[in-house]
Amino acid sequence: MFFSSKSYDLVSADEALPGRAQPIPTAETHFLTGRPLAAPIPDGMEEAIFGMGCFWGVERLFWNTEGVWLTMVGYGAGHTPNPTYQEVCTGKTAHNELVRVIYDPEVVSYEALLKVCWEGHDPTQGMRQGNDRGTQYRSGIYPTSQAQRDAAEASRKLYQERLRAAGLGTITTEIRDAPPFFMAEDYHQQYLAKNPGGYCGIGGTGVSCPVGLAV
Predict the structure, then answer these.
(1) pTM (2 d.p.)
(2) Beta bridge partners of 49
(3) Which terminal Cβ of the chain has fewer Cβ within 10 Å, N or C?
(4) Annotated catalytic residue 209
(5) What is the DSSP code (8-state) at residue 23?
(6) Tens of pLDDT along 89-106?
(7) Given 54, 89, 200, 209, which residue is catalytic?
(8) pLDDT digits (tens, 9 = 90+) for 21-62
(9) Rounded to whole angstroms, how far apart are CA atoms 136 and 70?
(10) Smallest Cα–Cα separation from 200: which of 191, 208, 189?
(11) Per-residue confidence (pLDDT) for residue 1, from 0 to 100
């Protein structure tokens, strides 16, 4: 999606771009389902947030997962309020490209979503994912509850063992409480549904991650 020689170091809040008070314009509804992107989370459903590289391909992984009710892409885990894509690409917001997932835990567990996350990208690459390089492409899991945090940390430990056994490196995935989620522009939402032949830069390691954490 974007390449430059910008630093791979996260900027501090003092160095970050100022952003703006109001959200940037975006789509009102999901391109595939027609559901409002700003809809309240339905009773009984839960929220999960992941960063796995270019959010176009990541969102497709999750909208194709049974039990997922709604997906959207945006920016978070940085400093700049309501950033634009161009601002995030400078590396001067510290934001990550994120996918927000609303799911039915009666149909798909959070652990199953973690499996999609771990297997859907290479979590050992630091500030990049494949050819996409920069702080916005870092691997991140952003729990919305203590139960999610516990599950994410347990799965990271377990998957690290599997990666080492396969001769791969150390996981660089950040796990931190869910940050404010700033919606990305209209054209980014469900991009690969609108552009089926469009760019998708994500790819896994080929190492499976068991759904159960007591393995």
Answers:
(1) 0.94
(2) 100
(3) C
(4) no
(5) P
(6) 999 999 999 999 999 999
(7) 54
(8) 999 999 999 999 999 999 999 999 999 999 999 999 999 999
(9) 22
(10) 191
(11) 45
